[in-house]
Design brief:
There is one protein chain. By secondary structure, this protein is of the alpha/beta class. It starts with 11 loop residues before the first strand and ends in a 19-residue tail after the last helix. The protein has 2 domains: 1-41 and 193-264, no CATH class; 45-189 and 284-294 and 303-450, Alkaline Phosphatase, subunit A, CATH 3.40.720.10. A 7-stranded mixed sheet has the order 5-10-3-13-14-4-15, with helices on both faces. It has a two-stranded antiparallel ribbon with strand order 1-2. A two-stranded antiparallel ribbon has the order 6-7. Helices cover 32% and strands 15% of the residues. The chain has 12 helices and 15 strands. The chain has helices at residues 31-34, 106-114, 134-142, 170-174, 191-199, 204-216, 226-233, 238-262, 282-298, 327-331, 337-363, 421-431, and strands at 12-15, 18-21, 46-51, 86-93, 151-154, 163-165, 168-169, 178-180, 183-184, 304-308, 317-318, 323-326, 376-381, 397-400, 411-420. The model is unreliable at 31-37 and 263-275 (pLDDT under 50).
Length: 450
Amino acid sequence: MTKNLLLDRRTLLKGLGVSIALPALEAMTPSLLQASTPTVATPPRRMAFVYVPNGVNMNTWTPTTLGTNFQLPATLEPLTPFRQHLTVLSGLTCDKARANGDGPGDHARAMSAFLTGRQPRKTSGADIRAGVSVDQVVAQRRGSETRFPSLEIGCEGGRQAGNCDSGYSCAYSSNLSWRSESTPVPKEVNPRSVFDRLFSGPVAGEAEQARLRRERYNQSILDFVNEDANQLMNRLGANDQRRMDEYLTSLREVERRITQNTATQGTLRPGTQRPTGIPQDYGQHMRLMGDLLALAFQADLTRVATFVFANEGSNRNYRVINIPDGHHDLSHHQNNAEKLDKIHRINRFHMTQFAYMLDKLRTVREADGSALLDNCMIVYGSGNGDGNRHNHDDLPLLLVGGGGGSITPGRHLRYPRNTPLSNLYVSLLERMGCPVASFGDSTGRLPGLT
């Protein structure tokens, strides 16, 4: 319970070039001060999309039974702690990733059509065209309710021009989010840049000055708001004090890991570029980005995000798990058992990092006591099914979270062949308070989610 304190949801901890949003607190609920039986406001719903390239080894992905009694296959085993939060969706199709008369280019189409449900124009020039992505529909309609309308992050940079896939612009295979049919939203791959964007002040000059000072004196971003934070903590009730302490501790830990990654010995030589903040360890990079997404949701900085593990068609190697081969090369496995096993190991590595992010979301408690994950709808998947076949039907798709009670998870659902993936998005948009008559190539809502 609060100490007779009422806070605006947009309250910030402020310092020189720093403004830190607060997590959901009981003190932000007017009814706590007015009702004889206090109640807590319903937490907002959040939506995120996590993309993996080149399809998966479907033999170790798809559960063999439907309903609630399904067993998690080998690739999905890292999600065992989240089984009650998990819905496995089989049978959905991204038709606009198919050629439909446009010839080769499945990787470019897979990524650009995944969230848009639109056929990308085949061009390697500046006249690109896809469609508005589902995350940006929410950003345009509800984005004014949070500091950032949306968040776009990833672990692999990409070109915005040039020919990357059989006559398709690199913009198609590098961008998941599209603000308009001709305007992709580039993802940020540098954890330091994402951190500074989320927690620096609104005045660019002050934010840069504060960053330089922090680096020079080895200070934390929290040092700049320490006085403000202490004053607030003294006015909060026990529950809110605990939430604030957990939130600020998580924030300091993420900042510490980013700083450790970019620390250098001695003085940089003239002309030497400042460290980028991108970890060499791919797993560490993915976990840092997952931490930042969780913090952004926890502080209600945004309610919709996209997270790209790697670009479509990526040939990244996975020496981190002793696989020196390129991912794309392996995906053309021709049913070779050794290659299929390596693909499975890559898929499982991705799933392990995804599970790490889910654990962060599950451990955060909302003001009403529910887990943050309970109020999320997180779609994980790829625009390709089997990388060898380059098929875009029966895609590997997961939906994690309860959507604030609007989804009944813990099940494996299978839909009729060629059911549009866009039908799922129509249903999610409705749950986000952004109802649409249709989206992309949808034919209606996706049944069975509740």
